[in-house]
C-alpha cells in the first residue's frame, strides 16, 4: 500500500538534516550530514557546492530510510539566514558563501550607525544592523572581493540556493528577504532604502519574493539523480530556519512565542504587523503568512558551549561527563559570571556592539572547571532573560534547537527566567515546519492549520519547571551580570584593537574548519 509523504530539508550552519514525513505526521525516514565552516580570522565562509552535495547525500539517505511504498508528493526547504550567497548567470557560485557569522564588516556597521544609515535600515526593515546582514556585507565584498560581485547575477540565501539546485528557479520568501532591503510593512523591496544606502547598483541581485507555501518549480532530472527524489515533484518556496522552527513548534498566531537555542540563540514573538518601536537589536521578519516575527537573536549559542568544552574538559570528554561536572558546581557557579559574547562579529541582541567580547568575571584561584562550565550555561540563560524582558515570570516558553537537547540548559533557563520551559520532543522542527508547507502545496493538507495538526499528533513535550528557591539568587545574578557587562563595554574596542595588533585570530587558528558540535549541540 502506497503512503503519501513529503520531504523536509533543513540546511543549518553545521549540518543538513532531511526528514520524510507521512501525511499523518509519522516520520518515515531521516538522515543528517555535517557541514564544514571555514574561518579566516574574522571571515567565515562555507562552500556552496559542498552544501548541495550534503543535501543530495542526506535526502537520498532519508528517502532510502523511508523504504518502499512511499510516494513523495512535495518538498520543503529551510536553511540558515543572512550572509551573501552569490551566483553568476549560469547558476554557479561566485565564490564561497560569506555566512551570517562573518565579522569582517564590523567597522562598517559602526560607521553606518554613526552616519544614520543604521537608523534608515531599522526604520524600513524593522531590524538592527549586524555584520552578517546582506547590505553591509555587499559593501565589504565589493572592497575585499570585487571579482565576485563582477560575476554575480543573483543573491540566493541558503535555502534558495538549495531550491535553485532542485528546480532551476530563482526565488526567495519574505522571511529571508526581510534581512536584505525588504519593507516589512509592505512585503516588497524598498527603493527608498536602496537609494538611501546608495545601493541601487545591487538591486539586480535581489530574487523575486514569493509566498512560502507556494510551489515554485519541480525537481529536475539532475536533482533527481543527485537526491533520489522523483523528477517532477513540486518544491515550495520555504522559510528561513528560525521561522520554520516556529512553524514546526506551532507558533504561528499573534501572541505565540518561542526560543531557539542553536548556533545562535533566538527569542521570537509572533505579531500582527511590524509597526512600532522595538528594543535595540530587534530583528523583524515578515513571514508571508499574514504575520511578522519580532525577534532578538543574540550570538550567545552553541559555539560558547563548544569552546568551553575544548578549554575546560579533559581530552575525550563527552557532553554527559561535562554536564555532570557543571551540575555539581551548583546554581550561581560559585559567583563566577560568563559574558557569552564570543562571536567574532560581536553582539546583536539585546544590544548591538560589534566590539563585544566574551569574559569570565568573578574568578579566583579557587574557581573550579565545573564552575567555569556552569557559568557559561548561566550566561546564555541570562542573555535570553534580558531578551525576553521583564517580568521574567509568566507563560511557558517553548524551546527548540540543537542545544535545547541539553536537559541542563533547559533547567538553567527555567531557573534563571523563572518560567516553565517546554521542549518539544518532535525531531527536526525546522524541517517539519517546511514539510507542513509542502503538505499544503502537494495537496495532502487543505491548509497550514490542518497540516500542523497532522504533523503535531506524534509530538510530545517535556517541561522543566523553575525552582522558586533560586529566584532571589538569579535576580541578584542578573543585576551583577548587567553591571559587569556595562562596565566592560567601554574597553571592548581597545581589546579588539589589541587582538588585531597581537595577531590573535578571532577563531582558534588563522584558517580553521569546524564540524558540528557534538551530541546534538548544534544549530536548529
From TrEMBL:
Region Disordered, annotated ranges: 499-524
Entry superkingdom: Bacteria
Single Gene Ontology MF annotation: kinase activity
UniProt domain Carbohydrate kinase FGGY C-terminal: residue ranges: 324-441
Entry similarity comment: Belongs to the FGGY kinase family.
Pfam families assigned to the protein according to its UniProt record, in alphabetical order: FGGY_C (PF02782), FGGY_N (PF00370)
Low complexity composition-biased segments: 504-518
InterPro entries hit by this protein: ATPase_NBD, Carb_kinase_FGGY, Carb_kinase_FGGY_CS, FGGY_C, FGGY_Carb_Kinase, FGGY_N
Carbohydrate kinase FGGY N-terminal domain mapped to chain residues: 6-248
Keywords associated with the record: Kinase, Transferase
GO BP annotation list: carbohydrate metabolic process
Gene3D superfamilies: 3.30.420.40
Name of the featured protein: Erythritol kinase
Amino acid at each position: 500500500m502506497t503512503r503519501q509523504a513529503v520531504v523536509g530539508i533543513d540546511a543549518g550552519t553545521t549540518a543538513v538534516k532531511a526528514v520524510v514525513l507521512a501525511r499523518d505526521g509519522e516520520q518515515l525516514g531521516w538522515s543528517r550530514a555535517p557541514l564544514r565552516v571555514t574561518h579566516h580570522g574574522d571571515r567565515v565562509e562555507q562552500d556552496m557546492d559542498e552544501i548541495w552535495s550534503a543535501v543530495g547525500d542526506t535526502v537520498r539517505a532519508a528517502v532510502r530510510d523511508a523504504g518502499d511504498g512511499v510516494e513523495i508528493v512535495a518538498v520543503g526547504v529551510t536553511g540558515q539566514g543572512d550572509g551573501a550567497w552569490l551566483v553568476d548567470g549560469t547558476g554557479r557560485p561566485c565564490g564561497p558563501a560569506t555566512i551570517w557569522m562573518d565579522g569582517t564588516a564590523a567597522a562598517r556597521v559602526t560607521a553606518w550607525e554613526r552616519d544614520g544609515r543604521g537608523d534608515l535600515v531599522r526604520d524600513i526593515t524593522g531590524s538592527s544592523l549586524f555584520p552578517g546582514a546582506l547590505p553591509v556585507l555587499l559593501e565589504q565584498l565589493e572592497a575585499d572581493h570585487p571579482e565576485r560581485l563582477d560575476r554575480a547575477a543573483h543573491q540566493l540565501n541558503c535555502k534558495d540556493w538549495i531550491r535553485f539546485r532542485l528546480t532551476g528557479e530563482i526565488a526567495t520568501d519574505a522571511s529571508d528577504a526581510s534581512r536584505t532591503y525588504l519593507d516589512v510593512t509592505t512585503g516588497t523591496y524598498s527603493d527608498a532604502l536602496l537609494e538611501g544606502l546608495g545601493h541601487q547598483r545591487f538591486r539586480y541581485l535581489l530574487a523575486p519574493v514569493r509566498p512560502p507555501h507556494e510551489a515554485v518549480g519541480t525537481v529536475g532530472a539532475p536533482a533527481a539523480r543527485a537526491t533520489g527524489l522523483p523528477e517532477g515533484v513540486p518544491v515550495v518556496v520555504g522559510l528561513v530556519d528560525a521561522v520554520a522552527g516556529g512553524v514546526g513548534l506551532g507558533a504561528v498566531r499573534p501572541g505565540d512565542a518561542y526560543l531557539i537555542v542553536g548556533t545562535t540563540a533566538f527569542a521570537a514573538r509572533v505579531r500582527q504587523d511590524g509597526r512600532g518601536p522595538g528594543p535595540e537589536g530587534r530583528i523583524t521578519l515578515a513571514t508571508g503568512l499574514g504575520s511578522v516575527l519580532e525577534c532578538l537573536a543574540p550570538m550567545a549559542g552553541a559555539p560558547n558551549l563548544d569552546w568551553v568544552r575544548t578549554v575546560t574538559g579533559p581530552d575525550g570528554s563527552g557532553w554527559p561527563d561535562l554536564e555532570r561536572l557543571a551540575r555539581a558546581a551548583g546554581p550561581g557557579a560559585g559567583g563566577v559570571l560568563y559574558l557569552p559574547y564570543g562571536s567574532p562579529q560581536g553582539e546583536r541582541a539585546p544590544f548591538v556592539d560589534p566590539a563585544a567580547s566574551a569574559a569570565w568575571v568573578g574568578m579566583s584561584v579557587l574557581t573550579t572547571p565545573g564552575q567555569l562550565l556552569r557559568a557559561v550555561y548561566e550566561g546564555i540563560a541570562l542573555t535570553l532573560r534580558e531578551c525576553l524582558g521583564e517580568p521574567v515570570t509568566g507563560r511557558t516558553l517553548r524551546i527548540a534547537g540543537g542545544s535545547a537537547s541539553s536537559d541542563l540548559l533547559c533547567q538553567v533557563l527555567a531557573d534563571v527566567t523563572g518560567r516553565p520551559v517546554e521542549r518539544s520532543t518532535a525531531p527536526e522542527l525546522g524541517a517539519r515546519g517546511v514539510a507542513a508547507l509542502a503538505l499544503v502545496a502537494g495537496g495532502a493538507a487543505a491548509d497550514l492549520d490542518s497540516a500542523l495538526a497532522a504533523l503535531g499528533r506524534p509530538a510530545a513535550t517535556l517541561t522543566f519547571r523553575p525552582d522558586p528557591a533560586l529566584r532571589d539568587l538569579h535576580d541578584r545574578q542578573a543585576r551583577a551580570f548587567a553591571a559587569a557587562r556595562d562596565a566592560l563595554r567601554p574597553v571592548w574596542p581597545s581589546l579588539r584593537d589589541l587582538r588585531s595588533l597581537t595577531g590573535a585570530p578571532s577563531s582558534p587558528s588563522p584558517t580553521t574548519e569546524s564540524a558540528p558540535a557534538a551530541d546534538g549541540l548544534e544549530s536548529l
